[in-house]
Amino acid sequence: MALGVAGSNPVRRPLKIAIVGATGLVGRKILEVLEERLWKENPEIIPLASKRSEGKFVEFLGKKIEVIPIEYGIPNVDFAIFSAGSDVARTYAPLFVEKGAVVIDNSSAFRLDPNVPLVVPEVNPEEAFKHRGIISNPNCSTIQMVVFLKPLLSAFGIEEVFVATYQAVSGAGMRGIIALNEEEKGGIFDETPFPTRIYRNVIPQIGEFSEGYSTEEWKMIRETKKILKSDVKVYPTTVRVPVEIGHSEAITVILRSSPSLSDVYDVLEKQEGLKVLRDGFATPVDVEDKDFVVASRIRFSPENPRALSAWVVADNLRKGAATNAVQILQLLIGGLG
Ligand SMILES: NC(=O)c1ccc[n+]([C@@H]2O[C@H](COP(=O)([O-])OP(=O)(O)OC[C@H]3O[C@@H](n4cnc5c(N)ncnc54)[C@H](OP(=O)(O)O)[C@@H]3O)[C@@H](O)[C@H]2O)c1
Fold first, then answer.
1. Residue from 111, 131, 247, 306 carrying the catalytic annotation
2. 140 annotated active-site
3. pTM (predicted TM-score)
4. What would the CATH number be for the domain defined by 141-316?
5. In whole angstroms, what is the distance from residue 143 CA to residue 138 CA?
6. Per-residue pLDDT reduced to its tens digit, 19-77
7. What is the DSSP string of 162-225?
8. pLDDT tens-digit profile of 132-166?
9. Active-site residue among 70, 134, 140, 168?
10. Angle between helices 140-156 and 261-269 (to 10 degrees)
11. Least CB-packed of 83, 152, 155, 172 within 10 Å?
């Protein structure tokens, strides 16, 4: 059966999917999520990485598949899911598109390009169908925040968002995890992605600073506006913490109206991909390997009836990256399933 995919040729069955960066933290998670969600499709997987991975294998549905360095050529595929950084995406994504593939990219390379949809399937699925070959996955911190903000924006309007993040070391890739583990053992990791020690520390810098804000903070400011199609003001402070998996966010939203807490619960509980805890709270450990975002500690400020605060957590490798990308692919081939 051939299914139409907006902006490209009809999709063949079985699907052929390239995973660029298949040996990385997100790449491996993509394989896992594809196994869980697309096993019935039995897709053909082509794992690609750098020359460093020549001779390595990954597993998919019980089969060992050899990883191919991307320099060796661009395969003919229906989809290419990229998780290999911005430089690799800029160099190779257009080559896949030329060959008729749809690219779903996890890097920041194309996120703010007006011709590239920036998609969170539970928030703006319609955008995915407007692609011209490339679709971007938003930044992990932005994804979990907009899943929480979207229903509030639609129901009550939002003026401003204050957010402090507590981001896991896996957000910086394999090197982030190695750095934490080495430092825990008393060593030093020369290739640490962090500007200072992360073990028993917290670091209020993710990326480079410009005009006082870090790259990660600018991503949250700009990507949120694009996804929500709103000029909502976002005031972020992004912080790396010595947690392996799972980003947490302390969010305060200044709403345009002052609903009751029960109205807020009603609205949030209807949001797809969001689990709401009326009692207690969720921590990064609770969301590890989960595909949904959890909001807890939801409360109005005693000082301002329009200031709503919450604690929002999600697995950065799953909903923040792999799951979101696979959900986009599922959207394009016909339903989130
Ligand atoms: N980690 C997260 O929570 C997260 C969340 C959202 C988005 N992302 C984005 O996802 C991407 C990957 O992140 P990650 O955490 O998986 O990083 P990672 O663990 O460091 O993995 C990087 C992957 O990219 C491949 N790669 C690097 N340079 C390459 C090159 N020149 N040619 C081909 N492949 C190359 C690596 O292959 P080798 O093994 O051969 O070096 C590896 O497979 C990044 O763009 C990141 O910003 C990550």
1. 247
2. yes
3. 0.95
4. 3.30.360.10
5. 6
6. 999 999 999 999 999 999 999 999 999 999 999 999 999 999 999 999 999 999 999 99
7. EEEEEB-GGGG-HHHHHHHHHHHTT---TT-SSSS--TT--BS-SS-EETTEEHHHHHHHHHHH
8. 999 999 999 999 999 999 999 999 999 999 999 99
9. 140
10. 120
11. 155
pLDDT digits (tens, 9 = 90+) for 288-297: 999 999 999 9
Residue position matching structure tokens 């998670």: 29
**φ and ψ at 111, to 5 degrees?**
-60, -35
**Homologous superfamily of the 16-138+321-334 domain (CATH):** NAD(P)-binding Rossmann-like Domain (3.40.50.720)
Residue whose CB lies within 8 A of the most ligand 1 atoms, among 25, 249, 313, for a mutation test: 25
Q: What residue segments make up the domains of the chain, in order of their start?
A: 16-138+321-334, 141-316
Lining ligand 1 with CB less than 6 A are 21-27, 49-50, 52-53, 70, 83-85, 88, 106-107, 140, 170-171, 173-175, 316-317, 320-321
